[in-house]
Design brief:
With 89 residues, this protein is mainly beta. 13% of the residues lie in helices and 38% in strands.
């Protein structure tokens, strides 16, 4: 059985947004862009460790930032068919 390089329903590039209040961010993108919530995984403290919404035909991943996090507004998840690891020089 072969593994699909891009999971069903995802694009080649999937944005991942970080927020101190992901629950509020989900509410905002739902109101502003008609997003549909796909999944929300909350930790024991009630914070969101991972969430996904669909806006049109795109999925956006989200999660809460922690108190010690540097300013990191977003990542881009890139799905590729084959990846090689090149250690730092």
């Amino acid at each position: 059985m072969s593994v699909k390089p891009i999971p069903e329903g995802y694009g080649t590039v999937t944005p991942w947004a970080f927020s101190p209040d992901t629950s509020r961010l989900i509410d905002y993108v739902t109101e502003a862009f008609g997003a549909d919530e796909i999944v929300r995984a909350e930790g024991p403290d009630g914070g969101i460790g991972h969430a996904e919404v669909r806006i049109g035909d795109s999925i956006v991943m989200m999660s809460d930032t922690g108190p010690g996090w540097p300013p990191t507004p977003a990542f881009l998840r890139l799905y590729v068919e084959a990846a090689e690891f090149f250690p730092p020089r």
